[in-house]
Design a protein that fits this description.
Two copies of one chain form a homodimer.
Chain A lengths: L2 E9 L3 E3 L6 H4 L10 H6 L3 E5 H8 L10 E4 L16 E4 L3 H10 L4 E5 L1 H9 L3 E9 L1 E2 L4 E2 L8 E10 L5 E7 L2
Parallel strand pairs in A: 1-6, 1-7, 3-4, 3-6, 4-5
Antiparallel strand pairs in A: 2-9, 7-11, 10-11
Amino acid sequence: MISAHVFIATSLDGYIARADGDIGWLLQRDDPTEDHGYRDFIADKDAIVMGRGSFEKVLDFDPWPYDRPVLVLSRQLAPTPVPAALQDKVRFCDATPQQVLAELEAQGVRRVYVDGGQVVQSFIRAGLVEDMVLTTVPVLIGAGRPLFGALPRDLDLQLLASRSFPSGLVQSTYRFAR
Amino acid sequence: MISAHVFIATSLDGYIARADGDIGWLLQRDDPTEDHGYRDFIADKDAIVMGRGSFEKVLDFDPWPYDRPVLVLSRQLAPTPVPAALQDKVRFCDATPQQVLAELEAQGVRRVYVDGGQVVQSFIRAGLVEDMVLTTVPVLIGAGRPLFGALPRDLDLQLLASRSFPSGLVQSTYRFAR
């Protein structure tokens, strides 16, 4: 069975980025001497699913940071060509979370890293996220792109672990109740 | 010097109540065998400031739960009489956070518990909150009254402590940077 997993950071008021996509407030509070567990998290993931916002943010990084296949879920990008340098690394796709997981499962993928606000929201809403590592940055930014969105019903979570870092990050791992 | 302190719980998606004020989702996840520290928190507070929403919620409780003077900040309630049973316990007031703290300080109050979404937001926006104990309940409710609101600028916080409970609550204590 394929499963989807989230590893994401928000401001204390729940934003993953400012309204214009800026994550400078996040990067400038990242203490590179602390191990926040991303390497451990990504180690057993076979593929990455993200939205257009995350993809365009990652495009700013050089070199391309992922050594796993990346699927970009975007109605807007789906009919456009993938940049030449990323042809063997990235695919654009317009599909529902269910369709994406079914397709990846047919390709042998078992564990998917789901990233980006809209995409994470759509996977949560569809009940398709297995667990979530949520890192809270000790700053209030007042407005922006929220991690969470509207839901058809309450969703219970089980806290699996919680830890804090000297920099003030609080990282909690939740499993979604079935 | 007088100081203002927050002790509050939110859903994982940052709501203190549903849009209609309902906090059943919160109460039903409260494990009475766990000590979440409210008694310790309130022990050194001399007065409580809250908004109309919190006041009306507390009115449902019987008996009245507070043994400290309560100031209800509400333009709507300010011109109305306090219910007879609460005459010596509650005062209605329409004032800014600065005015409220100045008035309470003149009365000898040193440490104020600030409660309720709108009132906490207005104290935070005015830079008047000293520290905040934030308890996160492991549920997503999708919509409601958010704890945090718009801000004129980013506000940094210092994490003082963080702990989790078997019930899945994560409680983090922050000090607002000056």
